[in-house]
Amino acid sequence: MTEATSPDVAAGKPILIHDPSLRDGHHAVRHSLGAEQLRAYALAADAAGIPVVEVGHGNGLGASSLQVGRARLSDDEMLSITREALTTSKLGVFMLPGWGSIADLDNAISRGVDLVRIGTHCTESSLAERHLGYLRERDVEAHAVLLMSHMASAEQLAEHCARLAGFGATGVGIMDSAGHYLPADVTERVTAMCAAVDVPVMFHGHNNLGMAVANSIAAADAGASILDACARGFGAGAGNTQLEVLVPVLERVGYRTGIDLYRLLDAADVAERELMPAPPTVDSLSIVSGLAGVFSGFKTRVLDISAREGVDPRDVFFELGRRQAVAGQEDLIVDVALALRGSATGTADRRASRV
Amino acid sequence: MTEATSPDVAAGKPILIHDPSLRDGHHAVRHSLGAEQLRAYALAADAAGIPVVEVGHGNGLGASSLQVGRARLSDDEMLSITREALTTSKLGVFMLPGWGSIADLDNAISRGVDLVRIGTHCTESSLAERHLGYLRERDVEAHAVLLMSHMASAEQLAEHCARLAGFGATGVGIMDSAGHYLPADVTERVTAMCAAVDVPVMFHGHNNLGMAVANSIAAADAGASILDACARGFGAGAGNTQLEVLVPVLERVGYRTGIDLYRLLDAADVAERELMPAPPTVDSLSIVSGLAGVFSGFKTRVLDISAREGVDPRDVFFELGRRQAVAGQEDLIVDVALALRGSATGTADRRASRV
């Protein structure tokens, strides 16, 4: 960010890189990152000049719980450690209304957070109104993101983004939470969103179909100016857009990020060594959940229930996709598995319809 | 393949998938695959309906040697085992003139090979003339591929492809050996190649910049009708195009492969379990070699020599790229490392020019 206005990087259109490795990556390690891990990566990311470093429980402020998993560190600890490590990078946090509250926002502000992102399901932007309003009152930079965005049309997303900007968001965007998009899908949606708002538009990809980098470039080409990416793609399942791949590819096609390539690669090496057992790869069930358009966080329960009921977990994912299951509707997995078990048709028939 | 003419798959343009997992993947495991491994994957690929299964030493027929590594099994053993496992998939082999000879072709034909691919450096198509002529005489299907193709212009590649077709190749194409391409690069080159020949055009991607699937789709959109891909991307460094991702993405955008999705995912699971210690991931040096346009097979020697001479291996890769190093020129690594060590300028200057 500090270099974003220097002459040699102003030649291309600037893209602001937002790095949620220490938040979204938490989903891959059951929210278990410790103080030394946060510090090591935050220092490396700061040294590389990454504009925003987001930290927290995978589900954001206030989400540490038995239901979605307890984080090793408290929100306060995570914010303090990361705040101390960052010199030029902004400190970001994520919050899902319902998990987090106004009290959590207050607390994050008192810990020195620079940028708060409020997330909602793609068709429920109104849930963010109160929180965005509060952040505006407190004069804290606030962005808003729509999750599972492939479930809404370009027109719907544009409308919700316009509403979020009206609520005070100074940046709006979409997450491809299920890793379902191909570049043309992103182009259509981001184009519509950019036409609907005057604030920066962001895109957050997942790599279930091997398209996270290509989708992110498509978003930039369609007008997005904030892109999310994680070191080594650190994230659940097939992982997020790989940060240290995205940045040089952006630079090569003419965008400017202000990030130092060698220090960025160093940060990614730190992430691989310190944060994760192994970098994410695209396994077969990640591909299926991406094709089906289902959040890959369902994977463990789909596998367990499918084994118990003797059905093919791939059939379960595709059926969940048809029923438009979203996070919080994990009870649907049992319904679907029972329905498939009871179905008289063989799997061969079902298979043909997937391809 | 067997389903390629059935009514429901004829709706979209057919794409022939060529699977070199058991040949190019060999680079990732020092040519060490054994009989049971070849058999397990070939059976699974055949069951999925993959049109061509290519087998052999990573560098093709006749290449097993001290210089590039000895294969665990002989060419004869690999061909016999795979031939026996395949019922509908064609048996393919690869050959680089110089490593392999007419005698190797004879032998492969006697072992029942269906399709031979002759590879040359992108500007040396004439090296394939004699071998393509011989295969035409013997009435064996023969394709020709240009390696390190990013080093040649679209016009040059088109010209070489036309020559190869003139030599008798019934399929011609390019490999992105260094994983350097972005989709627009592929579109430009494949479009020119398709305009220059009447035979099917192929594309073979590597994933150094996270673009292997997107590049392959760009190739299809530009007119390519043969695409290479490996199970889990099995291959050296960042790996090849991931087969079980590419196929459903192709189907989703309207192409038809005739491959059964579930059996394909099963085959990829077999590959992950039986063939490789772990699926390929995109590490920092793979990114650098892709950006620099250098074959990632240089990695181990670049690391060794850089450590010995006290220089940054990333600088070495970028300088090798500027010098247009190709396989066989490994001696350049020492020259480059010594030149960098002797250079008075700090690495900071060199870094800035990379980004």
From TrEMBL, chains A, B:
Site description Transition state stabilizer, residues in chain: R23
Sequence positions that bind substrate: R23, D24, S177, H204
Reaction it catalyzes: (S)-4-hydroxy-2-oxopentanoate = acetaldehyde + pyruvate; (S)-4-hydroxy-2-oxohexanoate = propanal + pyruvate
Active-site positions on this chain: H27 (proton acceptor)
GO molecular function: 2-isopropylmalate synthase activity; 4-hydroxy-2-oxovalerate aldolase activity; manganese ion binding
EC numbers: 4.1.3.39
Keywords: Aromatic hydrocarbons catabolism, Lyase, Manganese, Metal-binding
CDD domains reported for this sequence: DRE_TIM_HOA (cd07943)
Keyword check for Manganese: yes
GO biological process terms on file: L-leucine biosynthetic process
Annotated ranges, domain Pyruvate carboxyltransferase: 15-265
Amino acids binding Mn(2+): D24, H204, H206
HAMAP family, sorted: HOA
Family of this protein: Belongs to the 4-hydroxy-2-oxovalerate aldolase family.
Cross-referenced NCBIfam families: 4OH_2_O_val_ald (TIGR03217), PRK08195.1 (NF006049)
Name the record gives this protein: 4-hydroxy-2-oxovalerate aldolase
